[in-house]
Amino acid sequence: MTALLALTSSLLWGFADFGGGLLTRRMPALVVVVASQAVAAVLLLGAVAATGAVGDAGPRLLYAVAAGVIGPLAMFCFYRALAIGPMGVVSPLATVGVAVPVGLGLVLGERPGAAQAAGIAVAVAGVALAGGPELRGAAVARRAVVLTLTAAFGFGAVMALITEASAGGGLLLALCVQRVCNVAVGGAALLLSVRRDPVGALPAGGLWPAVRLRLPSLAWVGVADVAANGSYALAAHGGQVSVAAVLASLYPVATALLARGVLKERLRPVQAVGAGLALVGTVLLAAG
């Protein structure tokens, strides 16, 4: 069951990433984040009310609050990177965020094994190869790499936090609190952006018409993302965390295949090798 849940998580994340990146090519990234997470929050609030999950409230929900604060920044950076950079490079690079729980373990006194040490070296080499040509190229391409790495470490933190928030049960409430905080933080950031630059912060033709037109796609991104988080947390709690992390980290495969099949993306050979090494390094880190 752990393997099935983790693979389900990776598939859902892959489709959500592709959908979010595609939407961000048509409307501002912050609008995509807030609108998609708002749909998920409404559905989760209804589920919590219907199931009485509010009774699971406890101190661990602070981890969900922290995840909800970090999440919008990570998603904004990631969707923006997917919009301006090759999805086949951006998505694998984002998986190096698994270094966050590894680093936390080091702080707490753990020492990496041989596989983890190799994973760190391979992931760094992959980042250098995949991002190197872009960093030496146009400013837009360099920004895509920086945004991706920012998102990667944000995602790593969110995965660790939401797992901790649901460690004693109450996963549904934890996911709900996380999404409500996502909407609150993202909404505040969107409001500030609108005040600073009303034209650039909102879609052409107005916010509501653009959201209404793409509401099914936005809903799919939000629901797929929250379902992926839930599946991963269940997989991590139900079996070995290393196995769950390895299988859940395969989501870039789905995103890259969709980008190649739908968008006809083509990568430079060195970028393809680098993206593959980043993914291999991530697997080694999670499995070590």
Automatic annotation (TrEMBL):
Pfam families: EamA (PF00892). It comes from the Bacteria. SUPFAM superfamilies: Multidrug resistance efflux transporter EmrE. One of its GO terms (cellular component) is membrane. The chain crosses the membrane at residues 6-23, 30-55, 61-82, 89-108, 114-132, 144-163, 241-263, 270-287. Residues 3-130, 144-285 form the EamA domain. InterPro entries: EamA_dom, EmrE-like. Keywords: Membrane, Transmembrane, Transmembrane helix. PANTHER family: ACYL-MALONYL CONDENSING ENZYME-RELATED. Belongs to the EamA transporter family. This is EamA domain-containing protein. It comes from Peterkaempfera bronchialis. The lineage of its organism: Bacteria, Bacillati, Actinomycetota, Actinomycetes, Kitasatosporales.
